[in-house]
Design a protein that fits this description.
The protein is an alpha/beta fold. Helix content is about 45%, strand content about 10%. It has a domain of about 160 residues: Rossmann fold (3-Layer(aba) Sandwich).
Length: about 325
């Protein structure tokens, strides 16, 4: 069953990595896009209507921003910050309270759709088997816990108000405009640094940003999209295989050393102790687990519900990312 779009959508986080791609896709469909911005954020993307609020709890600003809006795509979030990693209240203020305020204002304005973009961290950090939507959540940090609480708030509001409210849990997303860990991995491979990961045998799910945008559209366009879904490129990939694929996309050699994982864990525990004094230590147990541990998800529920098939393969996604990196993303 196909559902109509628009004609006017509000996008939070429109100036971020994911938001830029979502806005571009919506504008390409000829829809009116209103971009929610706040003091200190980048200017609203070209072609959008800027809607400025002091914060997500700015009720008057939200009322103005939601006038005439039919659908909300909520991407904005308080993400990982080393200085606030133990300050759960800072995460809750944006990720939970801000989402509830936006939901309440949207329902009062008469919106019919509310897409919430979440994270695999709402379930945890490491998976022994690919997670499904039935996997019991066990988030381990404030970001994951508050995103899970926001998911629950969205589902409760959707039940009360009859909203079409897809919730999309994303693994690591890569693509043009990416930042943080995904960009750093490209930089390490491009510099030709030997990486001690040749002996790693794990399974990690990834998501190309073009596949994310396609999944969001599929969930919006189908009545059966009103649910919770994991999204990924497809089968998970081992970290050494990912490094080799990135190297091929960049036209660089893949320099992998087969260092025993036990030895790396010893080094990481030393890093844990040093991090108590110098917070910027690059190798700790937490960072090592994100590289050598498995985190795989099963995206078959979305495929069964709305017929979604990722339009891009891993190789195609990495090729597009490498092209952007060579022209704009490399330091």
């Amino acid at each position: 069953m196909t559902r109509p779009w628009g004609p006017r959508l509000l996008v939070t986080g429109a100036t971020g990595f994911l938001g830029a791609h979502v806005v571009q896709a919506l504008l390409g469909r000829g829809l009116a896009v209103r971009a929610l911005t706040r003091p200190g954020s980048a200017p609203a993307p070209g072609g959008t209507e800027p809607a400025r609020v002091a914060a997500l709890n700015d009720s008057a600003g939200l009322r103005r921003a939601l006038e005439g809006v039919t659908s909300v795509i909520h991407l904005a979030a308080y993400v990982h910050r080393a200085r606030a990693q133990h300050d759960e209240a800072a995460y809750r203020e944006v990720n939970v309270d801000g989402t509830v305020a936006l939901l309440d204002a949207g329902v009062a304005a008469g919106i019919r759709d509310f897409v919430f973009v979440s994270t695999v961290k709402a379930v945890g950090e490491v998976s022994r088997e690919p997670w499904t939507e039935r996997t019991p959540p066990a988030p381990v940090d404030p970001y994951g816990r508050t995103k899970l609480a926001a998911e629950e708030a969205v589902r409760a509001a959707a039940t009360r108000s009859g909203l079409h409210a897809p919730i999309l849990r994303l693994p690591l997303v890569y693509g043009p405009g990416m930042r943080a860990n995904a960009l750093r991995l490209f930089q390490l491979v491009d510099r030709g640094l030997p990486l001690p990961l040749g002996a790693v045998h794990n399974h990690r799910s990834l998501l190309y940003v073009g596949n994310f945008v396609a999944a969001l559209a599929a969930a919006m366009e189908h009545e059966a999209g009103d649910d919770l879904f994991f999204v990924s490129d497809g089968p998970p990939v081992a970290t050494p295989d990912l490094i080799r694929a990135i190297a091929r996309a960049l036209g660089r050699p893949a320099r992998l050393l087969s260092v025993p994982i036990g030895l790396m864990r010893v080094a990481a525990r030393i890093g844990d102790e040093v991090a108590r004094i110098v917070p910027a230590v690059p190798v700790t147990s937490a960072t090592l687990n994100r590289v050598v541990g498995s985190l795989a998800v099963d995206g078959s529920k979305l495929s069964a519900a709305v017929g979604f098939r990722p339009p891009y393969t891993l190789e195609q996604g990495l090729a597009a990312t490498a092209a952007w990196y060579r022209t704009q993303g490399s330091p």
